[in-house]
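In practice, a research group might receive sequence data for several interacting partners and want a quick structural hypothesis before committing to experiments. The following worked case mirrors that situation: the sequences arrive first, and a predicted assembly follows.
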Amino acid sequence: MTEKTQAAGSRPEIEVRGLHKSFGDNEVLRGIDLEIGQGEVVCVIGPSGSGKSTLLRCVNLLEEPTKGQVFVGGTELTDPDVDIDAVRRRIGMVFQQFNLFPHLTVTENLSLPQRRVLRRDKATAAKVAAENLERVGLSEKATAYPASLSGGQQQRVAIARALAMGPEVMLFDEPTSALDPELVGDVLAVMRMLANEGMTMMVVTHEMTFAREVADRVVFMDGGVIVEDGTPDQVIGNPQHERTRHFLSRLLDPAMAEVEEETSDQVGKGD
Amino acid sequence: MTGTDVPLQPRRKGLTRRQKRSLSRGVQYVVFVAAVIAFAVAADWDRLANQFAQEDIARQMFPDVITLALKNTVLYTLSGFAVGLVLGMVIALMRLSSVGPYRWLAGVYIEIFRGLPALLIFIFIGVAVPLAFPGTEIPGGTYGKVALALGLVAAAYMAETIRAGIQAVPKGQMEAARSLGFSPARAMISIIIPQAFRIILPPLTNELVLLFKDSSLVLFLGVTLEERELSKFGRDLASQTANSTPILVAGLCYLLVTIPLGFVVRRMETKAQEAVK
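A structural hypothesis for the assembly, expressed as tokens:
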């Protein structure tokens, strides 16, 4: 982990400045500032509706920010003149619902984007596809269709598909939330491998064990703002803010949540 | 003795529910068979056979009814379908466009061409176009005109079908494609449209069946002997021979194509349903 922190370069790989995002009257992000260094793994946690997925989707402009700037690898995505398709080639995205292309085989899922977007020839695309399938341990599924794979396998293929484009940054939007519990481990193992290889990663997740063990930094969001930002030990181990503590206690021990709620209510009344 | 031996409800007098159901079904069968027999007895079979089933007249139609009339019907249908598919795709994409005037234009086109009888379109193509643009010939002669007329009608229906198909592809597919660096157009062509076509293959095939029958409207364009399709061919021969047998034969030729197509559609629908499971 210390190695990685040193590896983090001077220029941040992802930089978000004064980001606001509204859907109609609903302001989901209320001024986000965030920097992620090269090779850094940042987990974004927070209750549902806190804006964490919206923030991630703003980083590759799947959502258009209402106000503020987003930089990836030094390029400003929010610049109206930027070639967004060219920037997105450098950003890998993994979705909660996998979003594999169901009409294509696993290999075609990996090779078609390379050929159409990166203009790689058939042989190169096939070779890169095979390499990345091997990285996620699914070489034997090369000719299968997504529908015949388990959720965990589909998500690993989705990760391989993103990796085949040779991204500098990987974004993960709750990658294990749609999986049966016994399938989560394989996906997390692949993500752990990527982190160890020095990939810059921004991960929206509820997997506290993963965040604790793999992340260099944990960001806690609530109500459209970043409440706490620090090492896993700081944010998860010793949270400074009441909102963070409350969220973590509910997540780690749902049975305790109600007791906690009552107590905090009483404290609130006392003030 | 345990409780399970006791009937849950006391047995009532009269018929059980199952007996009532089979009685009602039996009555329906009897009524149906009686109606068929009544028609069969009442109809004058000799006169019908005389008018519709003259073997020598039917024989005289071959091989032209297949090699000329059916061939032309198929040609007209396929060319109209091709034009309709291309035009329908363009209109569907316009309908889904973020540019207001495109959406509006596509909407107007669909409303007009879906609302008009195909017959009027054929007359319009046959009469109004040569008047409006004197000297211009629609390329391909009659074949071109038919392709255009059928295509214009089909495009309106197909545009709505294609639009529904595109919208049925989950939003995540476009997001995944865009985040891999596909441009919107490329994502549409490589990822969305192939999936949409899988969804709309059954309704598109239905449209093909409808066009196959609408191709009979060609007779309003005025065609040469060589350009006749099934309906015109059957009608001409019927008036020549003063007998309706050619009509029956032409009708059977339509069914020869439409029934297998209908079967194919049902197969595709079943398969699509299984795929969802």
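Before designing any experiment, note the following. The interface with chain B takes residues 60, 62, 85-86, 88-89, 91-93, 95, 97, 99-103, 112-113, 116-118, 147, 158, 161-162, 165 of chain A (CB under 8 Å). Residues 254-270 of chain A form the longest helix (17 residues).
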